[in-house]
Design a protein that fits this description.
single chain, Urease, subunit C, domain 1, TIM Barrel, 6-stranded parallel sheet, 19 strands, globular
């Protein structure tokens, strides 16, 4: 493998508390040194990072690439191209593929497809229950051995709390991370927007924040009972942040992430009946958004994810409640994080940490940092580069984004995955 010198960039590595101008040295696909040139190092390739930021590659805890099973919406090829263009070097794939990731063969199929695409760091999340039906537990240990980094029931409900308890006990016995998207489906009642001003004004089926907080509270109780490591995915409400803060204060082994678009949009930003704004959990109130930002800044929320869900045009046509929820969001992950920094909601170091070493810690990966000996997964970006979300700049096959036509600041110039520029 070629030896690479990345020179004169502003290196930000929160895990190692580095923030300085300098160079990064890469040998055999690994970080050889940061700032200090190794003895006898001779670069085969030099990347000039002057006026750019050099940081670890981003780790995305929640993506759906639509393969296997829904290639009409997106493919590994299209979405890994979008990820590479966005500085993302590792993606966790949710288990609600077709077929569901509830068997070793499916996990191995995903690994094979990732290798054929040339983007090897797609990490499957195993189904918590067979076919995600919420009744019988999956073969979690076999799925862990096949390379799954966690277990989850995605957005599907578990039949009852006893099944969830047994699943958490089993996961705890094998040191498996359980990723839980808190949502009581009976309270949610097939809603499509937040229970608030918008739902009242336009008569849309709504989801109260209690659907999230009640499910989260129940899972917290079971986490304490079972000792299971639990990560709460895509939280959206102020009361969830409060409950998580209390749980962490009393030493519970829990973590949480928030989808990047939830940190920017509220029900007041939604264009009525525009399905680009149909997401689950729904965009909530300004008060909720501010609490999510505060939770990210004070460490209650550990990481940011894209919650990338590309759709074809048909999925977003029709009456708002009948359209499929989700946003294509890999390519807006970096600029929306930088916008938080510009708005002084978080610092740049906090934003990069939430996309790098914090998700790596959650998954117990030796990555997300520029530590010598770690795989050379890096992102180099120009924080001042302005670009517009349009058909010329967009790589993902899914164009379902509420930010279409918006001009952002912050563009990736180079992404390296295990020392290879992708």
């Amino acid at each position: 493998m070629e030896r690479i010198l990345i020179k004169d960039g502003r290196i930000i590595d929160p895990a190692n508390k580095i923030d300085r101008i300098g160079s990064v040295y890469i040998t055999d696909g690994k970080i050889a040194s940061v700032t200090n040139e190794p003895a006898g190092f001779k670069a085969d390739r030099i990347i000039d990072a002057n006026n750019q930021i050099v940081c670890p590659g981003f780790i995305d805890l929640s993506t759906r690439l639509r393969e296997p099973g829904q290639g009409r919406k997106a493919t590994f090829a299209s979405e890994t191209a979008a990820a590479a263009a966005s500085g993302i070097t590792t993606m966790c794939l949710q288990p609600d593929t077709i077929p569901v990731i509830d068997a070793r063969a499916v996990a191995e199929l995903i690994k094979d497809q990732a290798e054929k695409t040339g983007y090897t760091q797609i990490l499957p999340i195993a189904a918590l229950t067979q076919k995600l039906e919420g009744t019988e537990l999956s073969a979690m240990l076999a799925l862990k051995d096949a390379g799954c980094v966690a277990v989850s029931n995605a957005n599907q409900p578990v039949k009852n709390l006893l099944v969830l308890r047994r699943a958490m006990e089993y996961a705890a016995s094998h040191d498996l991370l359980l990723i839980f998207r808190p949502n009581d489906v009976w309270l949610a009642n097939n809603g499509c927007v937040h229970e608030g001003r918008l739902s009242t004004r336009y008569g849309l089926p709504s989801i109260p924040d209690a659907a999230e907080t009640i499910a989260l509270a129940q899972c917290l109780e079971l986490a304490e009972l079972t000792g299971c490591r639990v990560h709460f995915g895509q939280i959206s409400s102020r009361r969830s942040v409060i409950k998580l803060h209390q749980a962490k204060k009393y030493g519970l082994a829990v973590s949480a992430d928030v989808a990047i678009h939830q940190l920017h949009l509220t029900e007041d930003d939604m264009i009525p009946f525009d399905s680009a704004y149909h997401v689950l959990p729904p965009f909530r109130s300004m008060r909720d958004k501010e609490a999510l930002r505060e939770g990210l800044a004070n460490g209650t929320i550990d990481s940011i994810c894209s919650d990338h869900q590309p759709h074809d045009i048909d999925a977003k046509l029709g009456a708002f409640p009948e359209t499929e929820p989700g946003v294509s969001s890999l390519e807006t992950l970096l600029p929306l994080m930088l916008k938080l920094v510009d708005q002084r909601a978080i610092t740049l170091e906090q934003g990069i940490a939430a996309l790098t070493h914090k998700p790596a810690q959650i998954l117990q990966l030796n990555s997300g940092a520029l530590t010598p000996g770690f795989a050379a997964d890096l992102c180099i970006f120009d924080p001042e580069w302005e670009w517009q979300v349009n058909s010329e700049s967009w790589r993902s096959q899914g164009i379902n984004t509420p930010f279409w036509g918006v001009t952002f600041k912050g563009k990736v110039t180079h992404t390296l995955q295990t020392g290879v520029v992708i």
